[in-house]
Amino acid sequence: MEGNLTVTIYKCNRMAVTILDGESKPTCGMCLIVDQSYGCSWCPPLNDCLSPMDANTCPTNELLEQGNTCPNPTITSFFPTSGHVSGGTRIAINGYNLGFVPSDITTVSVAGISCTDSEYNSPQLVYCTTRSILQILSGKVVVQFSNNQFLPALSEQTFSYVRPRVLSVYPTRGPRSGGTRLVIRGTKLDSGLTRTVMMSTAPCVPGDGYSCKIEENNSDEIICRTGSANVTDNLLLSVNFDLGCEYNGDTFAYLGDPIVDSFDRLSAIASGGLDLPILGESFDIIQTARLEVRIGSDTVSGDCSNCSDSTMKLICKSPNISVAQTDYPLLLPTSNLSLYMDGVTRYINFGMFFPGSLETAFEFVEDPVYYILPSAENIIKVPNEFQGQYNITIEGDNLTLASNSEDVSVIIGGKACFVSNLFINYLICQPPKLSEGVHQVQVQHGNLNFVVGHVEYLGPDQTLALPILIIVILSCALTVVLLCFCLLVLYNLKATNRSLSVLHTYYYRDSRQKSRKTGMDDDNVSDHTNCSQDMDYLSIGSTAATDAQPPTLPERTRATELFQLKSKVSTDIGKSSSKEEDRSGPDISLDTGKEQQLPLHPKRNMSRVNEKTHESDRKQQRPTTSEEDDEYSKRIYNDHSVSTPVDKLNEDAAAKSLTQVEEEKQ
């Protein structure tokens, strides 16, 4: 079969759409400008564009074909909505059914002022350029058509002829290389279609001066970026609004570019964020800067802040190079660093302009590490009365490899904890005054953040409980010490009483036995009797003291005198019984346990007549039987059944002596 057959499938209402209120709808104007080969027609009652096969659905005599005029021309919007009174603003008018050819439109007016020229684009778009007027005015946009049977298209919006005002410009200076961000404030600064900012020796001279590229614009503000200039001078700033121009006499000064001399610091941690002071000149005219580091094929950067605070010093943050796969410490020549300052490109490569940069190395070290607080449950308690005086120690590692105390911030409860000292493995900070409760402790070291625990600020009631607890503990300890001391004193008194009792028993029985065999004069008997009574008195007094209080100094003195008196009596007894001495055997010393010979009695040679004279008196004074002595000894020993090792020795000595006396009786 010869020839090619082309089949086109179409639908007229899809080819005549217009965006109305955010929706795609067919319109008369777009329908009647479709290629005639398709045979599309507009049906006003159906408000639709019909294909030839659907034309019979429209009522008779209502169908509009190409060549006819569409009814109801409409303006939906226009832009801009305001312009300078000097004119020159080109307005774009949007709508539908705005004619089929340019000759269909006769005039376009804005606020009753006809445009200098109008331009037909399509049934949906018409352009108009405003003319200059002498007054501020506002009104609607109107489009007139050559076919008088249709009413003109009238906008719902209004257009305003305005006179903008420039009020201020900041900053007023910048580097000659440009890049300064200017902020211009005023009123109605968004008027017109095109706006330009110029800096020149004379204001509002077209094509003269240096432009500032607009980046943001609204009714109250224009933000632009200055370009480079080949002069260092004060220039007038003006703003053009289409054919209009406004200025208030503000100037902008182009100054010489800043100069970099050296780095004040040549080390940083791998994660960056430390302050790197850069020394030089004219840094105060710089608004923004950043420092870049090249490590092989990787490039990392750190922003500079507070750049305008100093003329001679630029503070930049060290870049974070931890993303680069490398070992630490890492030494880089300063030629691997680049500094960007506004539009200044001089220091993109330090190797060309920075003296000694090729020989100077910049060091990156391993990141510091901080450890969890060692307190119970990671909570440190701060007493209320010690707020502002209590120091906190936070342990870590690698803290001072490239840092000092100014590089570290400790935050407690949203407030700074003053870092007073920083060492290689710990820091000390003084916590701020905060309200009662538990607050988080956070350490910021460059770009690193660590949560190391919590601090609990105690209230007045809680801090009062601590000293009370200490007082109670100390009181209890003191009471125990005093009780132990009293028990020790009582124990010693009882031991002394037992010793005196045993000693009394021994001497008493020994003297009585020897008195019966050897005989004594009245003086010796009287001394012995007094001694025995004193010993009994001392024994009773000691027992009472044991139950009441320690012996006083007079009592101890009395005891010493009694011992001395007893020694004298024993000496007298020994001298009067020299014969019995050989039979009775050696005496045992209570102090040393050694055998000693008793001394002779001084009245051994007394007359036998005196002995016989006093014999009867002595017999009347001493007990008639030895059972009384045995009973007395049992009573003494029963009262002091518990004895110490020393008491036991005394008791053994006394028992041994008594045994010898009994043998002599037999």
Describe the structure.
- The chain folds into six domains: 1-68, no CATH class; 74-162, Immunoglobulins (Immunoglobulin-like, Sandwich), CATH 2.60.40.10; 165-255, Immunoglobulins (Immunoglobulin-like); 259-365, Immunoglobulins (Immunoglobulin-like, Sandwich), CATH 2.60.40.10; 369-458, Sandwich (Immunoglobulin-like), CATH 2.60.40; 487-665, no CATH class.
- The protein is α+β, with helices and mostly antiparallel strands.
- The longest helix has 59 residues, at 460-518.
- The strands form ten sheets. Strands 14, 15, 16, 17, 18, 19, 20, 21 and 22 form a nine-stranded mixed beta sheet that branches. An eight-stranded mixed beta sheet has the order 32-34-37-36-35-38-39-33, with no helix packed on it. It has a five-stranded mixed beta sheet with strand order 6-13-12-8-9, with no helix packed on it.
- Helices cover 26% and strands 33% of the residues.
- Residues 520-525, 534-550, 576-626 and 636-650 have low confidence and may be disordered.
